[in-house]
Amino acid sequence: MNKKHSVTFNFIMNFILTASSVIFPLITFPYISRILLPVGTGKVASALAVVNYFSMVSMLGIPTYGIRACAQVRDDKEKLSRTVQEILILNCAMTLLVYIVFGISLYTVPKFAEDRTLLFVMSSAIILNVIGVNWLYSALEEYAYITAASLIFKVIAVSGMFLLVHKKEDYIIYGALTVTSNIGSYVINFLRLGKYISLKPMGSYNLKRHIKPVGVFCAMTVANSIYTNLDTVMLKFISGDEQTGYYNAAVYVKTAMVSLVISLGTVLLPRLSYYIEKDMQKEFKRITSHALSFVLMISLPLAVYFMLFAEEGIGFLSGPAYAPAAVSMRLIMPTIIFIGLSNILGMQILVPTGRERKVLQAVIAGSVIDLIINLLLIPALGSCGATIGTLVAEFAVALVEAVVLWQFLKEIWHMKRMVPYVAALIPSVAGAVALHRLVLQDVGNFLTLVFTALVFFGIYGAALLVQKETITMEFVLPYVKKLCLTKKAP
To answer: Kind and range of the H or E element at 264?
Structure first.
């Protein structure tokens, strides 16, 4: 294998990237939500969900399949170039077809016609996802570049939001800047493509070899998006933009936290696919074992903290107009844990080992459950009904994958590893709740979140150190010591 950065370095880079996806919206969302109000943010959220559906179909599951396929041949430039070109041909052909259907729908679906301009502007994401070939850069583990490029475009988008969005009618501008923030860097990806592969047509393409696995990944992506985007679309059609805005405010926090939790899993897929290709079973088991512990160590405290301080979180991020979203936010927080686990079990264990059909079965089960619960509960409960559907669906996906991998999990992981995390949560909850009730009653949402978070996560980290928890001692503590030594050096 060509010399690559360590998994730890890749994780740090991806963690910075995902942290920026949390920090930048933290800067802009309080401003945007107060300017656009629930109706405006609801329009953008539902438009993004619709565009994501079309983009998902056009991408054919390639964002995941492309990583695995390219990671397996990344040591051979000719094979890599051929693989990339073949995948791009399939991708471009499907995208052309999807864009035609999308254009027709803007004039034939009444709800789409209402926001035709917004949908058209945000549909640029469909094209950018194709030319960006981000799956190639992930397969090559170019996480330093991915992070740097993305940060530049996030800064541009955030600046644009404050400069250009001043009234509730500016939601179309906000939609365009949302696309820029998320995937604007894909333009640079395309321009740099020749650095890694040959752009000269290879000829004698074998597209058939990709169709079967791409079909499975595409079906998996479609099913997965049912319970990640369908909630928003169904809310718009059944309950209107206001309920969609409430739901979006709750899901926003969950999505930001999930990004942090799965940041490790994102960098593992190319490395684990390579290990499987080279039959490096010991390394494969070691990394997946640590990954499961890491996800639980991070997701448990995040879920508990934002369940405790849901009102303050919604109040700070979105303002008093979104107060009803606090209930949805509290209900949806456990999904942070379920998504983190299903990401490791499915995308980092089953997919690299060629068992993506099992992931598809799990996702279909979750999608069916989510659809049924949405139909039953959204008409009566609005955003809370959609939240319950998502919660149960994510649990079902994680459960099905755990059952499939039960024998493997018994080899690499034991439930006793949960003990330090649960033990650390008890004093953390007690300390944060006591501080809130005794000292922080009238200091405002922002200060409440700052001080309770410092106490909650400070106690949690200290408790893990006292218990000498494995991940903390092997990975976190050494880096903290290095940082301290670096600061002391002249």
So the answer is: helix 263-277
Nearest-angstrom CA–CA distance, 453 and 113: 44
What is the per-residue pLDDT across 76-114, written as a single tens digit (0 to 9) for each? 888 889 998 999 999 899 899 998 999 898 888 887 888
Residue 396 tokens read as: 């079902």
**Distances, alpha carbon 199 to alpha carbons 72, 80, 91, 130, 133, in Å:** 20, 11, 16, 16, 13
Helix (H) or strand (E) holding 98: helix 77-108
DSSP for 398-437, written as a single string? HHHHHHHTHHHHHHH--GGGGHHHHHHHHHHHHHHHHHHH
Which residue is listed with tokens 């030319």?
A: 131
> What's 443's DSSP letter?
S
The Cα 475–Cα 130 span in angstroms is 36
By the 10 Å C-beta count (0-12 exposed, 13-18 middle, 19+ buried), 284 is classed as buried
Contact call for residues 207 and 89 (beta carbons, < 8 A): yes
Position 1 pLDDT exceeds 50: no
Residues above pLDDT 90, as percent of the chain: 13
Burial label for 341, CB within 10 Å (0-12, 13-18, 19+), is buried
Dig out the tokens for 123 from the structure: 């549909």
2 pLDDT band, cuts 50/70/90, is very low
Please report the pLDDT score of residue 403 as a whole number: 93
Ordered DSSP codes for 297-336: HHHHHHHHHHHHTHHHHHHHHH-GGGTTHHHHHHHHTTHH
Answer yes or no: is pLDDT of 416 > 80. Answer: yes
* CA–CA dist 215, 197 (Å, integer): 25
Q: Which amino acid is at 273?
A: S
Cβ neighbors of 217 (< 8 A, separation 6 or more) are: 60, 61, 62, 64, 65, 356
Please check whether residue 399 is in contact with residue 339, taking contact to mean a CB–CB distance below 8 angstroms: no
Q: From CA 487, how far away is CA 264, in angstroms rounded?
A: 26
Q: How many Cα atoms occupy the beta-carbon half-sphere of 7 within 13 Å?
A: 20
Q: Average pLDDT over the chain, rounded to whole?
A: 82
Q: What is the pLDDT of residues 428-474, one digit of tens each?
A: 999 999 998 887 777 788 888 889 999 999 999 899 988 888 777 76
Taking the C-alpha atoms of residue 250 and residue 97, their distance in angstroms, rounded to an integer, is 34
- Give the separation between CA 311 and CA 307, rounded to whole angstroms: 9
> Residue 152 in 3-state DSSP?
helix
Token pair, residue 329, equals 């936010």
What's the pLDDT at 100?
92
